[in-house]
TrEMBL record:
Name of the protein: Sporulation initiation inhibitor protein Soj
Domain of life: Bacteria
Catalytic activity: ATP + H2O = ADP + phosphate + H(+)
Species annotation: Anaerosphaera aminiphila DSM 21120
Domain AAA per the UniProt entry, residue ranges: 3-184
Signal peptide: none
Length: 273
């Protein structure tokens, strides 16, 4: 195994990054993939949504491990990793991570601290998903530097806004300077209201603007209170409302993500169709 690492990123908050990380992760686990979810947001929302309602009381978090990488201190292979009963592993985060932006400034190889950590665990997983914080600071740069690809959740109504441009610039810069193989898997439309043609319009707009270089996932995630309820319950949409439209959306997304990987593997093997 050599995990595919996907960063779920958008510097805008409230667009569905954390919800996507948890549900895509558990979706992949349901397809028998070994999955590690990394909470890279000091708010600890991913940790909360996977059942750790008080992340600040967790002793060992991403901050602990990144601190050890920075100071060249040894750590245990599975140190800090928690298990969720729907089959995913979680490296949690809490408020301690907020001092990391500062610690990173003076660290050697500061952009690749997270990558150095993930290199030590990636053989044990098929997928590692990174739940980014809502900023383009050092933690998000670390996630982009460590990732093979990025998924960008976008609240459908916000797509034409300036924010996406900024994110794409940052991705471009990371590609040029640190991680040339970084790909954009696609834009995921989240919180889509029942306007069936709207998602199509958005896809057309993205195609017009970025000339086919950025894809919009066919799957989109409908707006539903069911999605908002799960974080309080500490479980996925597949456990909370398995027959609902949000579960259906995340299931389709899971399938698409698996398909992208299959196509890439084929390309690598030189078997083109
Ligand atoms: P981010 O991580 O980008 O800040 P979240 O995943 O935390 O975004 O989602 C922001 C808020 O919207 C949360 O309260 C979440 O429960 C809610 N939410 C997420 N997805 C949906 C959805 N499909 N429909 C309705 N509410 C949602
Ligand atoms: Mg979040």
């Amino acid at each position: 195994m050599n995990a595919k690492i996907i960063a779920i990123a958008n510097q805008k908050g409230g667009v569905g990054k954390t919800t996507t990380c948890a549900n895509l992760g558990i979706g992949l686990a349901m397809e028998n993939k070994k999955v590690l979810l990394v909470d890279a947001d000091p708010q600890g929302s991913l940790s909360i949504s996977l059942g750790h309602s008080q992340p600040d009381s967790i002793d060992t978090t991403l901050a602990t491990i990144m601190g050890k990488v920075i100071t060249d201190t040894a750590f245990e292979p599975k140190e800090g990793i928690l298990k969720h009963d729907e089959g995913v592993d979680l490296l949690p985060a809490n408020i301690e991570l907020s001092s990391m932006e500062v610690s990173l400034v003076n660290a050697m190889s500061r952009e690749t601290i997270l990558k150095q950590y993930l290199d030590t665990v990636k053989k044990q997983y098929d997928y590692i998903l990174l739940d980014c914080m809502p900023s383009l600071g050092m933690l998000t740069i670390n996630a982009l530097a460590a990732a093979d690809s990025v998924i960008v959740p976008v609240q459908a109504d916000y797509l034409p806004a300036k924010g996406l441009e900024q994110l794409l610039q940052t991705i471009g810069k990371v590609r040029r300077q640190i991680n040339p193989k970084l790909k954009i898997d696609g834009i995921l439309l989240t919180m889509v209201d029942g306007r069936t043609n709207f998602a199509k319009d958005i896809s057309a707009l993205v195609r017009e603007t970025y000339g086919g270089s950025i894809k919009v996932f066919n799957a989109d995630i409908p707006r539903s209170v069911k999605a908002a309820e799960i974080s309080a319950e500490g479980k996925s949409i597949f456990a909370h409302d398995p027959k609902g439209k949000v579960a259906e959306g995340y299931k389709s997304l899971t399938k698409e993500v698996l398909k992208i990987e299959k196509i890439r593997q084929k390309h690598k093997a030189g078997i083109s169709r």
